Amino acid sequence: MLRGTRLELGRYPTPVDRVDALSRAGSTLWVKRDDLTSEAYGGNKVRKLELFLGAARDAGKRRIVTLGAVGSHQVVATALYGAREGFEVEAVLVPQPRSLHAELNLRAALSLGVRAIPAPAWALGPAVALGRLGRDAYFVPLGGSNTLGSLGFVDAARELAAQVRAGVLAEPDVVVVALGSGGTAAGLAAGLEREGLRTRVLGVAVSEPSFALGVMARRLARKAAAAAGSSPVAAARAAARIDVDGRWVGRGYGHAIGQGHAAREAAGRAGIALDPTYTEKAFACALALLETGRHANVLFWHTLSRAPIEPLVREGLHVPARLARLLR
Ligand SMILES: *Cc1c(COP(=O)(O)O)cnc(C)c1O
Question: 192 to each of 8, 33, 151, 226, 288, how far by Cα in Å?
């Protein structure tokens, strides 16, 4: 049995907003507010960590080892909730383009007591992380995306289906969500299939090559569906629900896109804030999709924490040069 204890780190269900200000004739925009999964630090990593930290505790582990970009939300979330649940947290960090947002995330992770180990290149990250493992350590993968992490979003799809049945929102034709390491899109696809909704999942690639992100997400959807108890046929159908839009990557992971500014402004009218790495790209895609009028109901799945990051940063914190160099 893959699934063990689930720690309650967040508050559910997260709200769904109908955004009339950005809807078009015949195409309504809804927003799933996973920015509000927790007041301390929300976003999509919370649902994954509830399962990871539960599994680590079940296994009697003392340390959490994870891997991420130097400005990763996943590392911040793991640092915060890992420490809160009594684990020592280590993070192997790989380079990412410098932005204020990424730098703040690094400072927050360090302030939260994470032991950071720099890896000079993405390709070296997994080997460095492997070297940190041991019998007392539980490994949380890049982006928190493996079968167990995806099950957090199988649960999230069940939560959404209950909201549809309760009349909180119309059944979406499509969920638009940022596609990074794929666990979010994969779990949603598996969960939507299980719930019998017809909603498809449009993953907005945030890095190249986008087709590879799609392959990864579909494979993960199949595994998550099987782990949740779906038949092989249903698991294949879950995977086939995922489409990938590769037109919003721009210059690559962590690089802002030109349409980001307009997306941010529009998001302000929806009462949400965006980041350059993930949600500006995904929201820009959602806005373009609304313009086409192709779908009656478009649900943007918001994945960025609403909580301000500054309060997590310790004043006077010194960032060692070997870590600062990873922001390039
Ligand atoms: C990690 C992250 C994502 C990507 O989720 P995956 O499950 O890795 O695809 C999207 N948005 C934000 C804000 C994130 O931090």
Answer: 22, 17, 12, 13, 24
Q: Which atom of ligand 1 is nearest to the CA of 184?
A: 7
Residue nearest to atom 5 of ligand 1 (CA): 180
The three-state (H, E, C) secondary structure of 171-238, written as one string: CCCEEEEEECCCHHHHHHHHHHHHHCCCCEEEEEECCCCHHHHHHHHHHHHHHHHHHCCCCHHHHHHH
Q: 44 C-alpha to center of ligand 1: Å?
A: 6
Kindly give the distance from the C-alpha atom of residue 25 to the centroid of ligand 1, in angstroms, as a whole number.
30
pLDDT digits (tens, 9 = 90+) for 69-78: 999 999 999 9
Cis peptide before 13 (omega within 30 of 0): yes
Residue in 181, 274, 302 to alter for ligand 1 test, most ligand atoms within 8 A of Cβ: 181
The label of the residue with tokens 């004043």 reads: 315
Cα(113)–Cα(111) distance, integer angstroms: 5
Q: How far apart are CA 45 and CA 82, in angstroms?
A: 12
Q: Is the CB of 279 under 6 A from ligand 1?
A: yes
| Model pLDDT for residues 155-206, shown as the tens digit of each residue | 999 999 999 999 999 999 999 999 999 999 999 999 999 999 999 999 999 9
Residues 180 and 77: their CA atoms lie apart, in Å, by: 16
Q: Is the distance from CB of 65 to CB of 92 less than 8 angstroms?
A: yes
Continuous H helices in the chain: 45-58, 73-84, 100-111, 125-132, 147-165, 183-195, 210-227, 232-240, 260-269, 279-292, 321-324
* Phi, psi (rounded to 5 degrees) for 100: -60, -40
pTM: 0.98
In whole angstroms, give the CA distance from residue 172 to residue 197.
9
**Does the C-beta of 160 come closer than 6 Å to ligand 1?**
no
Task: Check: CB of residue 56 under 8 Å from CB of residue 138.
Answer: yes
Query: Is 78's C-beta closer than 6 angstroms to any atom of ligand 1?
Result: no
